Amino acid sequence: MNIGEIARRAGVSRSTVSYVLSGKRQVSAEIRDRVTAVIEESGYRPSATARALAQGETRTLGLVIPPMRHHLSVDQLHFVGAVAEAAADHDYDILLSPSGQDRDRAFERMLGERRVDGVIVMETLLHDSRVSTLIERGFPFVTIGRTGSGQEHGWVDLDYAGLVSEGVGKLHALGHRDIALVNRPQELLDREYGPAFRAADAFDKAVVELELHGVARCCDDDDDAAAACVEAIFAAAPAVTAILTINERSLAGLVTALAERGSRVPEDVSVLAIASARNAMSLRPKVSAAEVPAERMGRHAVEALLRRLAEPEGELAHVLLSPPFVDRESLAPRPG
Amino acid sequence: MNIGEIARRAGVSRSTVSYVLSGKRQVSAEIRDRVTAVIEESGYRPSATARALAQGETRTLGLVIPPMRHHLSVDQLHFVGAVAEAAADHDYDILLSPSGQDRDRAFERMLGERRVDGVIVMETLLHDSRVSTLIERGFPFVTIGRTGSGQEHGWVDLDYAGLVSEGVGKLHALGHRDIALVNRPQELLDREYGPAFRAADAFDKAVVELELHGVARCCDDDDDAAAACVEAIFAAAPAVTAILTINERSLAGLVTALAERGSRVPEDVSVLAIASARNAMSLRPKVSAAEVPAERMGRHAVEALLRRLAEPEGELAHVLLSPPFVDRESLAPRPG
DNA sequence: TTGTACGCGTTATCAT
DNA sequence: ATGATAACGCGTACAA
Known about the structure:
The structure is a homodimer.
Chain A: H1 3-10, H2 14-22, H3 29-42, H4 48-55, E1 60-65, H5 74-89, E2 93-98, H6 105-112, E3 118-121, H7 129-136, E4 141-144, E5 154-158, H8 160-173, E6 178-183, H9 186-190, H10 194-210, E7 213-218, H11 223-236, E8 242-245, H12 251-260, E9 270-274, H13 277-281, E10 288-290, H14 294-310, E11 318-321, E12 325-326
Parallel strand pairs in A: 1-2, 1-3, 3-4, 4-5, 5-11, 6-7, 6-8, 8-9, 9-10
Antiparallel strand pairs in A: 10-12
Chain A binds a DNA duplex through helix 2 and helix 4.
């Protein structure tokens, strides 16, 4: 079933059917009704492909996700769902491209073959080749996470620097003077992954500013690594009484590792995290945390990109989110 | 840049360029090299839209995901990533459609506007309107999870019935005679969600067969619900010494609820789960579990669908996976 | 190897 | 003011 067949059955020309559908021109009530009736009874819908070819836009957005082998976190995965829903609310579809490092064919396909009108890039690095590519080609996009080089582009980001400062401040206010930071894996820090990099930086600054004794450690994204990390922290600084972690994926391991070495939370050690509420609340004690607002970030990203598509010369969106820390059961004043 | 421009620059016809690209016809080495050179230096890639229109296939697969408000589980989300990667490995892209219940516009769009060549349906119900729609329209698809009505279609499923029988058998072999099943939410059971339904059924059968005392309880997908569920279980059957759960999302809550009521795992109560390894291992004690093989299921689904597209009359794929239970620290013989 | 019809909507232009 | 005609977007594949 195509537009020509509808036109034939309704006894009008193809363009008339098109105008009935788009409303871009007045069509007499009589003909409009006749065409509409034929469309109804035949269940006709215009082919997205043909329309895309004619209009030069696909009404599809690309979402560049990190390869699975990086074991996506719950937050990242939620973000994918949130983006899909936000896009659906605007009658846009989301095309997935698992890319990064060696896996770039899907990304190339999306851009080169013009499968999408614009792109959302997840897990942006401070120096990100995908961003450079997109800028070079003049392809509309927004990133989740800022790049560091001041490249001009729209972004939605979580204020890791601010959150870490605030978190350290909270612990400081509770009297803690020996504080550890559990960061994301060293590999990500080396590759200048924004959150890891900015968290490390903000932590160092806060330590100096508040005249604390601070230890920052990278930790692989799993529970076993957390155990090793806890050992390393207390080996380096036995007096630590508070831990701030931005590593959601090892949070459960962190809590159990503390328990296993006999440190009670929060009596001996306070724990503060940046992690999804689901994750923080399923632990015992429930961990105080600032929640990564995946849902909101997804919506912001989609809307920023759609605005860009509507107004290519409009202002770039810069959305910096800073969710509040929610106090649960893992914080206490410095012991002793 | 389009194929006509390439043809002009290379001094050949458009069809020759097309044949150079597709290799569907012999082209003289000289012309081939000339064309290839022009393509190289211009960075030309054929438009996916135009090609889709010409060939009648989009090289895109649709993935129907449940709405976010159902709070996707880690497994489900991993599955999305796995599908995207498997598709990318075959140079296909994945189009996301968050659908189900009221949210069906994206689904309708995918089918009606022919945005995709085939569809993968997640979270299939025993009687699933999406499956009926797909069959009616003769649209190629595979489901994750079987429907119950014997409708003809390809599927990939986890053998919940078999796993529950096996799990109960394991607990029985350890001497347990009072066993509880923690199922998915009542709402899902009512809607005849396959895993919930088949698990309940298999549990009942195993209980009869092995002459056990069994209690089956539905549990909402969160940790608080698990606490209520544990209470309900012991209220109904105080002698329970083993719990089998297929509810991954409340697993952490289940373990802490047991601890909080003073039941030691595994000394007092054994726990066996069907859940992702990540999830089971991050708990203390580490929970013995059969892992939901999201990765494999994703690959199977993509490959089954691609086979179907290649051979529409070929056999329907029926893949029933039954991952092994991995013993960790949550199982012990019946106490006393 | 090339010319050209075709797939399917959209929209500018012409005719009424 | 409406309806019809035709060109266009871009690649594919058959006939010549």
